[in-house]
Q: What sequence folds into this?
């Protein structure tokens, strides 16, 4: 079978193989992992007619440089506003391009966003763990971290028409996050819940695939130190005893004893991952009924867009 | 609002895709049994649109696809299941976990003897005497929380976590014990090292324990530990 080889000339921290995730195993302590921005991964894949959840390389703001050693193949880059340099020609993410042997592809942080997805018209040779190539970064289980110096093999490389990919408005970072209160809002006073909705919170540098610590008015819970650990989800806003909230992302711990004041809707969590440290956010609390309406509207809008890519 | 009980759980929406069912606010056998009863009922009788259920000490998280169902429909389906969920669990499986308490395998042994006032032999005897039960997994892949530490061996966790604790370390804190599966920081007390594989790398049975299993520790020597192929790589 034909193959294309790349040498990883540079990989920043937190660059890894990710796919649509590994759902269904939280009961064993395994979070779904998968792309931080799942919509962007889907777009990168569908731009190449790949399966929607196929494994890609998730590139952090630390960037990625690949030297094509052999083969010729088309790749797609979607997510964030990254800079993509192919053999000296500079462009941006949201593009489909063909890389030939001898060329260097460099992806670096650009004007906005924290993650971009490099999809290949071919199959990444990476370990599978429990049915998925998604990497759980703390353990290294799954497709794996991408490190400087390694070789990357893509099986069955194909070429496709190169073109720009339209960047939909809902792929931009969201500064207003819709969230449903709780599930443990009873541990917070009315004043604290009001502070959550009326204040600005800022992302801090304590930001990785597990989550991001926020800075803003104190949200100290009441009488919550002894609650038994509960399952947590991506999007949970959990508040430690010191009153500091953390918004959880793809590699979150599956359980935790800190109370959750609110939980951000799934697609808004995708959009929150494209924020950067020091960006400001606000929370808008919605009812469960409204959350479902919003989720369905978003799902329809995403589907309409994805249908145009095929 | 009255708090949740095993007979009258409370339901809390979680974002646009889940419900948290709470059966109580404490770690107790009757509460945990109610969690597992609903979990089993959900396995037997799948609810349309439900994608995953996650049991913990006192709560069950039920995740769903918001394009297929909603909180109210899932709540109604779970409420109906609660009425019929009256089965008793199958006899739990007993799993054995090997442990070496010697020297470098137990970096916190001296601190534990000091804090408990027990001799080293008494600490080991107390740990081996415990009847443990798998209450839940959490934190990291394969991280199973075993409750059953005897009262004389229950310690508050350390004020600050120790970084880089190796996989296979046997840790205790309060009534809980666990065997770490990945290298990580922890504020629990390191009293032994185990070669027993918990991540089995078998898609049909990825992890050693099922929730509800009973666990006994079995003492091994340092020589036996070294002779056992390291399961954690």
A:
């Amino acid at each position: 079978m034909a193959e294309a080889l790349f040498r990883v000339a540079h990989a920043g921290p937190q660059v890894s193989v990710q796919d649509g995730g590994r759902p269904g195993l939280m009961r064993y302590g395994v979070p779904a992992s998968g792309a931080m921005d799942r919509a962007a991964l889907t777009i990168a894949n569908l731009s190449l007619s790949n399966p929607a959840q196929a494994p890609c390389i998730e590139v952090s703001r630390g960037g990625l440089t690949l030297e094509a050693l052999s083969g010729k193949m088309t790749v797609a880059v979607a997510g964030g506003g990254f800079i993509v340099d192919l053999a000296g020609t500079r462009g941006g993410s949201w593009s489909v391009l063909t890389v030939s042997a001898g060329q260097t592809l460099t992806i670096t942080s650009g004007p906005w966003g924290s993650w971009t997805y490099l999809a290949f018209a071919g199959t990444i040779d990476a370990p599978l763990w429990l049915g998925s190539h998604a990497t759980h970064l703390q353990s290294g289980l799954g497709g794996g971290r991408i490190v400087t110096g390694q070789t990357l093999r893509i099986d069955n490389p194909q070429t496709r028409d190169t073109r720009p990919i339209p960047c939909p408005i809902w792929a931009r970072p969201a500064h207003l996050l819709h969230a449903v209160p709780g599930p443990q809002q009873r541990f917070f006073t009315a004043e604290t819940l009001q502070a959550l909705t009326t204040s600005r919170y800022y992302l801090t540098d304590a930001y990785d695939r597990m989550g991001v610590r926020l800075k803003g008015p104190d949200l100290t819970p009441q009488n919550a130190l002894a609650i038994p650990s509960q399952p947590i989800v991506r999007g949970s806003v959990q508040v430690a005893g010191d009153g500091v909230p953390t918004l959880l992302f793809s590699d979150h711990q599956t359980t935790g004893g800190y109370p959750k004041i609110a939980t951000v809707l799934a697609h808004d969590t995708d959009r929150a991952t494209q924020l950067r440290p020091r960006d400001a956010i606000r929370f808008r609390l919605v009812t469960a009924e409204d959350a479902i309406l919003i989720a369905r509207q978003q799902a329809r809008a995403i589907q309409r867009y994805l249908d145009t890519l095929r | 609002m009255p708090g949740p009980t095993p007979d009258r759980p409370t339901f809390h929406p979680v974002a646009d895709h889940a419900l948290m069912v709470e059966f109580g606010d404490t770690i107790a056998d009757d509460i945990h049994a109610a969690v597992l009863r609903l979990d089993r009922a959900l396995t037997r009788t799948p609810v349309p649109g439900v994608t995953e259920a996650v049991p913990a000490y006192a709560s069950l998280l039920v995740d769903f696809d918001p394009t297929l169902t909603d909180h109210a429909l899932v709540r109604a389906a779970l409420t109906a299941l609660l009425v019929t969920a009256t089965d008793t669990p199958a006899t739990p499986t007993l799993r054995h976990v090997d442990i070496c308490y010697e020297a470098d395998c137990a970096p916190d042994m001296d601190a534990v003897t000091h804090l408990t006032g027990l001799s080293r032999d008494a600490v080991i005897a107390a740990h081996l005497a415990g009847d443990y039960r798998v209450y839940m997994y959490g934190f990291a892949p394969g991280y199973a929380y075993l409750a059953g530490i005897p009262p004389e061996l229950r310690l508050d966790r350390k004020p600050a976590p120790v970084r880089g604790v190796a996989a296979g370390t046997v840790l205790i804190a309060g009534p809980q014990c666990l065997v770490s599966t990945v290298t990580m920081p922890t504020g629990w007390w390191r009293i032994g090292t185990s070669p027993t594989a918990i991540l089995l790398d078998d898609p049909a049975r990825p992890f050693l324990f099922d929730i509800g299993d009973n666990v006994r520790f079995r003492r091994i020597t340092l020589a036996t530990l070294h002779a056992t192929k390291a399961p954690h790589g």
Observations:
- Chain A has a mean pLDDT of 95.
- The two ends of chain A are 26 Å apart (CA to CA).
